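Hi there,

I know you've been waiting on this one. I reran it after we fixed the sequence typo, so this is the corrected version. Both the input and the resulting structure follow.
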Amino acid sequence: MTATGVRAKICPACRRVAPVDAALCPMCYRRLDDVEPTDLAAPSRRAAWARAGVGAIGRHARLATAVVLVLAVVAFAYTRYFRPVSPLPPASTSTTARATADAWPAAHGGAGAERATDATAPLAGTLAWALTLIAPAVTAPVVDAGAIYLGLADQRLVALDLGDGAERWSVPVAGKVDSAPVVVDGTLYLAHRSGRVTALDAATGSERWAVELGPSVFASPAVADGTVYVASFSTLAGIDAASGEVLWTRSIGAGYIQVAPVTAGDHLLVATNRDVRFFDRRTGVEHYRFGLREAARVGGNAGTAFAFAQTLYVFDPETNAPWWWGLRGAWANLYVLGMAPAVPLPERRWTVALPRGAFAPVLGEDALYTATPAGVVTARDAMTGAERWRRELRALVVPPVLTGGGLLAVEADALVLLDAASGALITRRPLEGVTVSGIAVTGSVIVLQTGAAAEGIAVIE
């Protein structure tokens, strides 16, 4: 105490008055070692009481904050590690969409959207037939042993005979066909923008079952282990592939789902307009979330998962959220105040920025392949991201396909097969008078969408 009042330190950050020997500001925790004490006027009794009250409130607020943080940690730990989780209801079959010698069952191959098949494409085959469609195709072709299935611009789903292109059947679709169907074991699964999901007999087009999910569905389903995974506007659902019974639903909360869900081993990947989420397919529990806006596509297999939004992000499908995940907001605030280190970045294996306009990647067992419309094809190690090889081709018109015989790239006037391990050229098969806008591959045929607006179909066998 001085003749004029008291000596104290005034925090330059928040203007809080602190004792003359204080090392930290009691309000914002700024260090006060470099602050010179100041003579303050002696406070009135009322001001002293008010200051004491404010100090008590501050101490109580800090105590309350600490209690809330501790409770948040306990709640997160219980929810994540200790709360018992019941398995999801089992499906009645083990039906799974896999790209095989007899089928290209989904727009990007199998349930993981890998654009990969063990089948060896018949590049040495002849052009068996070609036709112009009544209306342009608005979906990628999917293929089984007997037919090619397409959504057309005239609001129809059609089946074309694989042998000669004759129309086997067609069914009207209420509203626009927004996404390709999935064909598995003689059944065609189609999601409608009305929120309706239907299963059709692949041989006749007759309806086997239908489910009304409610919100609009704009993305293709994924079929794995007897479950049809469907992403509506803000809900994820699992439907029994055989019976149409809704096994479970999950609300995704904030945001909306905009691309097709995919499987990655025992996991399900879902991309919203705000992030990419990983779910355990056995329990339906979300175990990881990665902030990524407007992902164009996700994909995965048992060992690797990826998300693509011009930048390619690669993950381990088993990745779990760390214990502090629920506290990252508070951690970020403490970092801003200089009281904590920077919040760690979300876990991922590696990231690479791709040239503007690059195609979504192709996923093999131990490598990812990327390509650009300019013709630059690159192979990277799936674990490290290290570049294995790079090759420059002529302009490419669609994303490549990984086949049992190599990586199949589509130039404007040729099909090019590269050695998947080295990038060496294996063969180039010219395409005369054909403009390719899509491709599906099995062991017996190569199906090409033709025309700038996918007005036709051609088959090499």
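Quick highlight: The two ends are 98 Å apart (CA to CA).

Best,
R. S.
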